[in-house]
Amino acid sequence: MPYGAVISVLKTLDELQFESRFQKIQYPGSEVRTLQNNLTFLKNFLKREPPGITDLEAKIRETMYDAEDVLDSNLSNFILNSESATWDEDNYISSFTQALEEVNTKVDSIAETARTLSPHADRPLLLMPPVPEVSRRSLIVGREKDFIDLKYRLTAGSASLQTVPVLGIRGIGKTHLAQTVYDDPDVVSMFKMRAWVEVSLDYSKKEILLGLLRSMRKLGSGKGQEIAEDDLARRLSKVLSLGNYLVVLDDVCNPEAWDNLRELFPDWHNGSRVMLTTTQKKVAENGGGFIKEIRPLDGDEPWALLQSVVFRYKACPEKLVATAKRVSDNCKGLPLAIVTIGGVLMEAGPNDWEIAASSLTHCGNSCDDLIDSVMSLSYKSLPKYAKACLLYMGIFPNNYDIPLSKLFKLWIAEGFIDKNEQFNSLEKMADGCLSLLVERGIVVVSERNPVGKIKTCRVDGVYYEFLKKKAEEEEKFFHVVDSYTTSFPDDTWTHERFSIRVNIQFAGKDELKLKKPVRSLLFDGAQEQNPRWVHLDFKFLRVLDALKIKLYGFPDEILKLVHLRYLALTYPGEIPDEICGLWNLQFLIILQHVSSKTSEVVSWLPIEIWNMSELRHLQLMGRDLPAPSTSSPRLENLVTLLDVSSHSCTPEIFERVPNLKKLGVRIESPALDAAQDLSFLSHLTLLASLESFKCVVMHPDFTSQVASPNPIVVSFPATLTKISLSGCGLSWDNMKAIATLPKLESLKLRWYAFRGSEWNQKGDGKDFPRLRFLLLEDLDIQWWKAGSGHFPWLTNLVIRHCYKLQEIPAVIGNIPTLKKIELVDCNSSAQRCAQEIKMDRQSRGYIRVDFHSSRDD
Fold first, then answer.
1. What is the distance, to the nearest Å, from the Cα of residue 540 to the centroid of all Cα atoms in its chain?
2. CA gap 562, 542 in Å, rounded
3. Best-predicted range by mean pLDDT among 219-233, 248-262, 604-618?
4. Is 780 left (phi over 0), alpha (psi -120 to 50) or beta?
5. DSSP letter string over 479-538?
6. Long-range residue pairs from 81-84, CB within 8 A, at least 24 positions apart, any chain
7. Are 32 and 71 in contact (CB under 8 A)?
8. I need a surface site. Which of 120, 235, 606, 753 has the fewest CB within 10 A?
9. Average pLDDT estimate for 463-490
């Protein structure tokens, strides 16, 4: 991506001029400023997306790669060698100046060409503002009969297990129709368990098992890789034996797939159903029985669907009707094409409609050609920054649910995200970019957190292959290594980013010489069980994600990777002090193996950590921040600090991280007096920007007393939206400090987070004024009393393993927003209260009440 490459070089130039460690050396200032001015112009030029610049974009991309090589090479040389006795500053400046002059000559020529095009730089398709998400109901315009028919096949008929194949060509809307039926309230209430999984052409049974269990929330996202396939199959069978189930196997391509997977779904003669979606008739026939074949929309249906997507409840402007009908006719009755092109053309003018109609007219006769053309139009209409972010998502496997927190970190580390006048932080800019991709239907939300915010996502299946091809072949954006090898293939020598999905052997330096420096290396294969050596001598590396690799020792060559912005390792040993020399690091994540025993001795990071001014995310399991000296600078950019102990939560440290938004505290070996470990709870108000707080006491000892002999003072900042506590043993009196928080949306209390038999919310005040999700788990509470004004916005109440709880306050049923109550391993008295709440609410709105036993898991 030329735009992303320009942004990356501009960032490096900023570092060169303003990073304090470079102030002592004289750089070729005029050459740097000339380059910076030209690149600022090219950045704005590319933003406008003028037509007919494909060749120019290729030149920009290649020249930016050359510029990056020059800058990174000279910066590395200075950082690693400037302190040596043989350092020749004059020779260094001369060499650097000459290299920059050569780059500037190329950039000058490109900028001159761009200036001749700039007056005519009108976009062929509008840069669309964020658009309202297309509702799933609008996607079934013209599919009403299919919807009713498919729903009937799932909810009526024989009690025996039945397979319902849904057959249709690519883009016909099989998946969206199936999803609409799957989420229909009648279908949801009909089946005790539902699961959805995509079946790729090269599927593995283990991945299907993991997908099904995760879909039913029996495994966490990304969990379970270490479990054997047979054990996963037994676990699934046990879960499916608990009642009737609906399983959707989406996009089954292999005719033998159903034969290999059908044994996973037992027939309990309770009305269970398995729905398959496929483009292959043989697959549908293998499913047996009734086949629901989806045909293209016809008549006025394509026009009706396009209007519902683009104009919603307004009439199509008269001047656009003729052209808009040409667009709908050219979509050949394929809902995917209509909805995708409709998303591009919302707010578009007559010229954009004409271009779209013409493009679709000349895209070929096959439906595959049409879909590819529509995908291309949709991609071209995205803003430049969104294109780079979208292409990067193709580096993950198909159907992989990408954790949003990781995706945003990688986008920022790669340099795709830049602040603008609309978003004042990189994280907000990343969130805005994702929202645009979701609203366009390109990215699918896989999972939301309890308050409805996106937790994981993935690229829509139809879009994925288009995206991967464009990223690997056209843009040379990344390369995926998915077969065993001892080196990188020859045809990837021009790539800079690599995703390693198998255990490639980094054996020798000679095998790893590439035309382009490797700048990103992501190990995305299975979790390593045995330690190994990994060769990481890629001196221009910016992103290194090796959490899946079990290391023999800390790789010394990492300490020389001065351009690293993102470093993620799994390593239980001591971290070398030299890691603080990685001045460019924004994200530092070092976890420990699951089996590693955490030392009871405090492990301190070096004092130089306070000089790492670029840090945004710090997660160092079993390590703590040192006390800052009086001269230690503040870490202004640090927004996330995770897995530290209470030793990192002193007033002196909190004052040095003024913009911290997320704090996670992990106390491994609590003191005999809980107040000693939890005294930091009185300092949290020093964090004026804190939004999320989690505290876990790993091995609490409550055998000696109900409460601490010293009272624990609790004080939380009013900015908090999420709190999660476990093992803290607080008194219910401390809940007052939480109940009044004005922005709190999610509260999770686990494993004796609070102790005592009674939680009494006295009076009819406005406790928890914005709380939407409440979890009570493994508490010794017996009596819970609440007033009528409490929890006015609560939507979900989950109570697990609270064996002594006798009642749920009846006033909970009066909360108009309440949608669900879930009880796991609770006694019959609490269950009876939940049922009474449900019955009492029938005339005022539906509440779902679920009872579950952990023995069923």
1. 26
2. 8
3. 604-618
4. alpha
5. EEE-S--SS--GGGTT--EEEE-S------GGGG--SS---EEEE-SSPP-S-B------
6. 82/25
7. no
8. 120
9. 73
- pLDDT confidence tier of residue 798, bands split at 50, 70 and 90: very high
Q: Which residues pair with 694 in a beta bridge?
A: 664, 724
Cα Rg, the chain, nearest whole Å: 29
- Give the separation between CA 448 and CA 457, rounded to whole angstroms: 9
pLDDT by residue (tens digit) across 811-821?
Answer: 898 899 999 99
Instruction: Provide the token pair at 49.
Output: 């997306």
Task: Specify the 3-state DSSP secondary structure of 232.
Answer: helix
Instruction: Compute the distance between CA of residue 840 and CA of residue 836 in angstroms, rounded to an integer.
Output: 6
Could you read off the pLDDT of 375-404 as tens digits, one per residue?
Answer: 888 888 888 888 889 999 988 888 788 999
d(CA 132, CA 294): 27
Count CB-CB contacts under 10 A for residue 600.
7
Identify whether the C-beta of residue 666 lies closer than 8 Å to the C-beta of residue 643.
yes
What is the pairing mode between strands 454-459 and 402-403? antiparallel
287 vs 272: CA distance, rounded Å: 15
What is the C-alpha to C-alpha distance for residues 396 and 404, in angstroms, rounded to an integer?
13
Q: How confident is the model at residue 116 (pLDDT cuts 50, 70, 90)?
A: confident
Buried-state track 674-703, b at ≥16 Cβ within 10 A, e below 16: bbebbbbbebbebbeebbbbbbbbeebeee
Interior angle at CA 379, CA 376 and CA 385, nearest 5? 155
d(CA 833, CA 810) in angstroms, rounded, equals 7
Please tell me whether residue 286 adopts helix, strand or coil conformation: helix
Burial 94-108 (b: 16+ CB within 10 A, else e): eebbebbeebbebbe
With vertex at residue 717, the alpha carbon angle to CA 715 and CA 722, rounded to the nearest 5 degrees, is 105
Inter-residue contact 792 to 819 (CB < 8 Å): no
Who contacts 24 (Cβ-Cβ below 8 Å, separation ≥6)? none
The 3-state DSSP class for residue 306 equals helix
Report whether 808 contacts 779 (CB < 8 A): no
Residue 282 DSSP label: H
What sign does the dihedral 27-30-31-37 (CA atoms) show? positive
Helix or strand run (H / E) with residue 405: helix 404-414
Angle between helices 89-117 and 29-48 (to 10 degrees): 30
Q: Indicate if the pLDDT at residue 118 is higher than 70.
A: no
Whole-angstrom distance, CA of residue 717 vs CA of residue 688: 6
Tell me how far apart the alpha carbons of residues 723 and 768 are, in angstroms, rounded to a whole number: 12
d(CA 212, CA 42): 48
Question: Cβ atoms within 10 A of the Cβ of 575, count?
Answer: 19
Residue 477 has pLDDT above 50, yes or no: yes
Report how far apart the first and last C-alpha atoms of the chain are (Å, whole number): 46
Q: Residue 623: exposed, middle, or buried by beta-carbon count in 10 A (0-12, 13-18, 19+)? A: buried
Q: Which two tokens stand for residue 240?
A: 């499916």
Amino acid 568: pLDDT: 95
Tens digits of residue pLDDT in 737-796? 999 999 999 999 999 999 999 999 876 677 899 999 999 999 999 999 988 889 999 999
Residue 503 pLDDT level (bands cut at 50, 70, 90): low
Give the span between the Cα atoms of 232 and 237, in whole angstroms: 9
What is the pLDDT, as a whole number, of residue 749? Answer: 97
Looking up tokens 């483009």, which residue turns up? 279
**What is the 3-class SS of 542-585, one letter each residue?**
CEEEEEEEEECCCCHHHHHCCCCCEEEEECCCCCCHHHHHCCCC
The tokens of 80 are what? 């690693």
CA nearest to 761, candidates 788, 781, 779: 788
Handedness of CA 30, 32, 35, 36 (dihedral sign): negative
What phi and psi values does residue 799 have, to the nearest 5 degrees? -125, 120
